[in-house]
Design a protein that fits this description.
The complex is a heterodimer. By secondary structure, chain A is of the alpha+beta class. In chain A, 21% of the residues lie in helices and 27% in strands. Chain A folds into 7 domains: 1-166, Ubiquitin-like (UB roll), CATH 3.10.20.440; 167-288 and 408-487, FAD/NAD(P)-binding domain (3-Layer(bba) Sandwich); 291-406, FAD/NAD(P)-binding domain; 498-580, Arc Repressor Mutant, subunit A (Orthogonal Bundle), CATH 1.10.10; 601-652 and 746-840, Gyrase A, domain 2 (2-Layer Sandwich); 658-742, Alpha-Beta Plaits (2-Layer Sandwich); 887-971, Elongation Factor Tu (Ef-tu), domain 3. By secondary structure, chain B is α+β, with helices and mostly antiparallel strands. The chains are: A alpha+beta, B alpha+beta. The interface between A and B is medium-sized, with 28 and 34 residues.
Chain lengths: 985, 94
């Protein structure tokens, strides 16, 4: 096979030969090639199979709008599907393969779909697989679900590797005065003007080289421009796509750092996800050439005219020998001239009849002619052409390539991200950007300017606009008028030839044909948004960059309307695909969310703790001995606490310092129970309600001094409670003289619980007299010292129901405290206990936690009515009495035993009446445990009407998820030591 | 991304802040009747255009702020501390 590379053309480095593989065969290219240019140079025409019909597809473009050459790059865990060959830079050893084909793109068995095309029209899936009424009425979903997996396999493009991504990605941030998107003549002019006016400028270019579409010029050299930009201190970011514009001039960028390197340094991220905060944005994103719809307009060998110019002048590849160019505008003639000079036989079909163009007559111009059908299947054999007024079989031209230019669409996508609708311009047959109040200015051909001088002028005007809006200058400016061609464009979207059933494509990538658009119209899907969803026009990963306007024009014609009346769909970010890896950056694996550990985390692990996640915290779950299982371990730990003593890390509880003269009044307002009479040296359990009367959180507050409290909150609600207190003090009670400070990280806490806990502490504190029952009664608080002169705070608080103390030291002393306590606890056969045993102990006591206080429960529901003061008003005191919270059938906290004490149950079990097991039942079990004390499983939860109503009735626990059912006895939630004698001991 | 100009920290991303709610509510006194509380808690205007709302600089200085923001464009007209004393400090430092 002969190469299509020609001498003396292109800016590739012919001294640097790169080898790459395509579908497992080896080929050669040059440094500076894209995969597409290297494939073309090696005469590889078919690079993919289409989405639905599996038609052979070639390379349509030379840029991001590519809708045919989607390939898979790399292998194994680095396999990257749906990569546009036109933007993939070639590197040594690149592995690429075709996709959506079996066995390969040249010979694809599913190609038969092409002949079954009439069954695959728009809406085919819904119509075919959603059930055939009336026989399968209502069963559509099941049928669809059965067929779906086959359809998904048949339709679709490349597949992901399914393996963990070995590459790293990075999030990065930057700030600037002005960000310029696009390094064409307009963008460069804007950037230079701005830098000369002392603005801090970032210039972003998606290509590897700056220059924009000038890179397709035969005499373009960007080195001088690059030097000038660098000398002005402009930050140039190549291989970087501005994929989205967001509020307040925030721009999202994707920088492809190593996608063009064969063996990247492992310390460098593959891609960087940039968030740029600018003061002004100038978009010079260029324009995209459109194709024309006519029969078989997708045969490999069809390309846009501008793409062919790129391949010739940038890559030295002559894409065809006998080329027909079909156009409706002036932009193709320079290319036609250059192609014929490079040795191709060129014919231009121009749909216009009345126009003047200067040429050197090296190629033929057929005025008033259009193409209507391509002959060939895997490559182009010939083109049927006709006079444009009426399409009749008249003439056939032998050719191997057809280049199309149906006009140019300014890239208004980024502006569209900001909700700015483009306006239709009849003279230039394209959408132009509208003005916006935001600091965004469109320049160059993305505002419809077709010649270079106009683009440069618009860049300078754009910067003047930016300077004016930023209040730096007040200078008059004007933008050149859109257009710039000598002869007006003649709208041409479709050449309709009715005597053939061949397909005429609007959207190549999703196989949307002109007939699909007509079908959508016939079936009533006439709004653009409906048209888009019904036919999937513009929904492939090219987002309709080439085909959308053609689809709109067809619908406009069918509706007898103008294009602007039909409207345009809204472009949304990203402009080009962004990998999930880049979005997640470094927030993967262990870094997916923050990890919080207590200061004795390592101590716990060293002492055998198995850890569990509680919110963001790692907490000890259980401390197994030798071969103990979780349940062996927690049952032993809980029993030990009841028998002797146990030590538990409770540092994850939220801790807040409340200071100032208004502290007592403040606590009295936020807690439902009274705090005004709490003495110094005493703690109190308190419940906070929300404004609407529902329980927010519970915890304790310790009065350390007249105007100083130490508050603990639950682990999960700590942040919320802190914000809530700040909100109240800063917005509602601004006259209250109180300061709140989060001290959760500053203090490490343990619970020492069990009948021997005082003995243990006696050995640990400097002065054992301060913790006698007299000096430190139940709920007493003292600030004292542990041995070794370690300041600590001790309160006699019990969550387990046993005699128990909470001991807090500054976090730096956590390990010393643990060593001291553990050394002494061992003397009494004590244990370390984790969250599982803590749970068992509190369920036995009927103490509620987050599992019960789930944001739906009132203080009465939780059986804590006595915690609601009647002597004062507090947050939620009015609302907790509202009607709906006072209904008789509210679910009330109770305890549950299985009727057969050998049975077990799980949290989440639905409680039902016998013979009425359905729906949400009459209650639920929220927490369960094996009770070492009672010798069987117990639970707490809620049931409508509470204990009084059901204490003599057997209820049923239904657990449909685990396919379990058991009879239940309703008991008091206080299952052990209901009078609390042990705590007061 | 909304950018909020915190009077203490300067202009920051909205991801540093937590949204509070309607800043124009006058919460009734704690001993007010259920009816007044219902009015304050559950009845909200659905404003198209500029509204006053509270934001908490939760990953910053932890100040509660009143932000005047357009619900249509996200344009922010003004930002000030909720607490009147802090408002005075900000005013005096201008």
């Amino acid at each position: 096979m002969k190469t299509r590379r020609i001498d003396n053309y292109g800016k590739i480095n012919r001294d640097k030969i790169l080898s790459f593989s395509w579908d497992k065969k080896n080929y050669k290219g040059f440094e500076g090639d894209t995969l597409a240019s290297a494939l073309l140079a090696n005469n590889i025409g078919i690079v993919g199979r289409s989405f639905k019909y599996h038609r052979p597809r070639g390379i349509f473009s030379s840029g991001v709008e590519e809708s045919g050459a989607l390939v898979t790059i790399g292998s194994k865990d680095r396999r990257d599907p749906n990569v546009r060959a036109t933007t993939q830079e070639l590197y040594n050893g690149l592995e690429a393969s075709g996709q959506n084909a079996f066995p390969n793109v040249n010979f694809d068995l599913a190609g038969i779909n092409n002949y079954l095309g009439r069954f695959f029209a728009a809406g085919f899936y819904y119509k075919t697989f959603m059930g055939i009424p009336p026989l399968e009425w209502g069963k559509g979903t099941a049928i669809w679900m059965f067929f779906e997996k086959f359809i998904r396999k048949a339709a679709g493009m490349g597949s992901a590797s399914g393996l963990p991504d070995p590459d790293t990605y990075e999030h990065a941030h930057d700030f600037c005065d002005l960000i310029v998107v696009g390094s064409g003549p307009a963008g460069v002019a804007a950037a230079i003007e701005a830098a000369e006016k002392k603005l801090d400028v970032i210039l972003v270019e998606q290509d590897s080289l700056i220059g924009g579409n000038q890179l397709a010029e035969n005499d373009f050299d960007n080195s001088q421009i690059k030097n000038q930009l660098e000398n002005l201190g402009i930050k140039i970011m190549t291989r970087t796509t501005a994929f989205g514009l967001y509020d307040n001039c925030v721009v999202g960028l994707l920088e492809r750092v190593t996608d063009h390197i064969s063996a990247p340094n492992v310390n460098i991220p593959r891609q960087r996800f940039w968030t740029i905060r600018a003061k002004h944005i100038i978009v010079g994103a260029g324009a995209i050439e459109r194709h024309i719809a006519f029969n078989n307009n997708d045969i490999p060998g069809v390309m846009t005219v501008n793409a062919s110019k790129h391949y010739l002048n940038r890559y030295g590849v002559l894409t065809g020998k006998r080329i027909v160019i079909a156009t409706n505008n002036d932009s193709v003639y320079e290319t036609a001239h250059q192609l014929s000079e490079a040795g191709a036989n060129v014919t231009v079909l121009d749909s216009r009849t009345n126009f003047e163009i200067e040429t050197n007559k090296s190629f033929e111009i057929r005025k008033g002619y259009v193409p209507y059908n391509i002959n060939g299947s895997k490559k182009i054999h010939s083109l049927d052409i006709s006079k444009s007024e009426t399409i009749n079989k008249s003439e056939t031209i032998d050719c191997d390539q057809v280049l199309l230019s149906g006009g140019w669409s300014p890239a208004v996508h980024l502006l569209s991200h900001r909700g700015v609708k483009p306006k239709w311009d009849y003279n230039n047959a394209c959408f132009l950007p509208s003005d916006t109040k935001e600091n965004i200015t469109m320049v160059g051909s993305s505002r419809g300017l077709w010649n270079k001088n106009d683009c440069i002028a618009s860049g300078i005007a754009g910067t003047t606009d930016a300077l004016n809006r930023l209040g730096i200058s007040k200078t008059n400016y004007f933008f050149p008028k859109p257009g710039g061609w000598k002869n007006p464009i003649q709208p041409l979207y479709e050449v309709k030839y009715k005597k053939s059933r061949s397909k005429s494509f609007v959207d190549y990538q999703h196989d949307v044909t002109t007939d699909d658009v007509r079908l959508a119209h016939r079936e009533g899907f006439i709004s653009v948004e409906h048209l888009k969803r019904y036919t999937t026009l513009g929904m492939a990963n090219d987002q309709g960059k080439m085909g959308n306007i053609i689809g709109l024009s067809l619908m406009a014609e069918l509706l007898n309307k103008e294009i602007p009346e039909v409207g345009t769909t809204v472009f949304r970010p990203p402009y080009t695909p962004v990998s999930i890896g880049a979005l997640s950056g470094r927030n993967v694996g262990k870094h997916f969310r923050p990890l919080r550990v207590t200061p004795m985390h390592q101590w716990n692990i060293d002492h055998g703790a198995k850890m569990i996640e509680v919110g963001l915290y790692q907490r000890p779950w259980y401390y197994p001995k030798k071969n103990e299982t979780l349940s062996d371990s927690y049952i032993r730990e809980a029993s030990t606490v009841r028998k002797t003593v146990g030590i538990c890390d409770i540092t994850s509880l939220g801790k807040i310092a409340i200071q100032g003269p208004g502290s007592t009044e403040f606590l009295n307002r936020i807690y439902s129970n009274g705090f005004s009479k709490l003495q110094v040296g005493k703690a109190r359990y308190g419940i906070m309600l929300r404004d609407d009367g529902i329980v927010m959180d519970d915890g304790t507050s310790w009065r350390l001094a007249e105007n100083e409290y130490f508050m603990t909150t639950s682990t999960g609600e700590a942040a919320k409670v802190m914000s809530w207190l700040e909100e109240l003090l800063q917005t509602r009670w601004t006259d209250l003289d109180v300061n709140v400070t989060s001290i959760s990280e500053q203090w490490a806490g343990v619970s020492v619980a069990g009948p021997k806990s005082r003995e243990v502490l006696n050995n640990c504190v400097d002065d054992s007299l301060v913790i006698t029952n007299n000096k430190l009664p139940f709920m007493g608080v003292t600030s004292t010292f542990l041995k070794g002169n370690i300041p600590c705070r001790i309160a006699r608080i019990s969550f387990s129901g046993e005699l128990a103390f909470e001991v807090y030291v500054k976090s730096d002393f956590a390990n010393t405290m643990m060593d001291l306590l553990w050394e002494n606890a061992k003397k009494y056969d004590g244990c370390l206990y984790g969250l599982e045993a803590l749970g068992a102990l509190r369920v036995e006591k009927g103490h509620v936690t987050a599992a019960e206080l789930d944001g739906r429960v009132t203080i009465d529901d939780a059986g804590l009515s006595k915690m609601a003061s009647t002597k004062k008003s507090y947050i939620g005191s009015a609302m907790r009495k509202r009607g709906v919270l006072k209904n008789n059938d509210r679910e009330i906290l109770v305890g549950f035993f299985p009727t057969n004490l050998k049975e077990t149950f799980n949290a989440g079990t639905i409680v039902c009446e016998k013979n009425n097991i359905k729906g949400q039942g009459i209650g639920r079990i929220t927490s369960v445990t094996y009770s070492p004390e009672l010798g069987h499983w117990i639970g707490i939860g809620f049931v409508k009407g509470g204990l009084d109503k059901w204490k003599d009735t057997t209820l049923v626990g239904a657990d449909p998820v685990r396919n379990k059912q058991m009879n239940l006895k309703v008991v008091s939630p206080h299952m052990i030591d209901p009078k609390g004698e042990r705590m007061y001991a | 991304m909304i950018r909020i100009n915190c009077p203490y920290c300067g202009e920051r991303d909205h991801s540093e802040f937590s949204y509070g709610g309607d800043a124009t509510i006058n919460y009734p006194s704690l001993d007010a009747l259920e009816k007044e509380w219902t009015e304050a808690i559950f009845f909200r205007k659905n404003i198209k255009g500029f509204q006053f709302e509270t934001w908490h600089h939760s990953n910053g200085c932890r100040m509660w702020l009143v932000v005047e923001r357009s619900t249509v464009t996200h344009e922010i007209k003004s930002v000030k501390p909720c607490h009147p004393d802090l408002q005075k400090v900000v005013e005096n430092n201008k």
